[in-house]
């Protein structure tokens, strides 16, 4: 459920603007247990990453790095350009046995949180009750991990 309101955890401002926080999670519970990928950009510049796959008894991968203010500005720009902060997930598919996605963003005094099912393809987007809004979400969550490549974040 999208929620918009004042952010206010007292965190400081990062270079290039007001407070910025982003967290993305995608996962499911299946025959290999709880498998997920999650990452967050924190206002202090810390990028946290976790990937849990129990396939072939893999272990959870957790990494933390500090990114430069320019990386935070680029992530912020991607969010602003997408206009995701104007969307509402009330007509998006509910999480189900296939999985769930969560996206939480704080930019300045705006705070929004989305929850939806895993999206397999654009067909899922086009057949939803809100294809325009879900399309913005779909492309955004695909572009955020690409920021790692664009910004030359060290291998996680």
TrEMBL record:
<dbReference type="InterPro" id="IPR004023">
    <property type="entry name" value="Mago_nashi"/>
</dbReference>
<dbReference type="InterPro" id="IPR036605">
    <property type="entry name" value="Mago_nashi_sf"/>
</dbReference>
<protein>
    <recommendedName>
        <fullName>Protein mago nashi-like protein</fullName>
    </recommendedName>
</protein>
<dbReference type="Pfam" id="PF02792">
    <property type="entry name" value="Mago_nashi"/>
</dbReference>
<dbReference type="GO" id="GO:0035145">
    <property type="term" value="C:exon-exon junction complex"/>
</dbReference>
<comment type="similarity">
    <text>Belongs to the mago nashi family.</text>
</comment>
<keyword id="KW-0539">Nucleus</keyword>
<dbReference type="GO" id="GO:0008380">
    <property type="term" value="P:RNA splicing"/>
</dbReference>
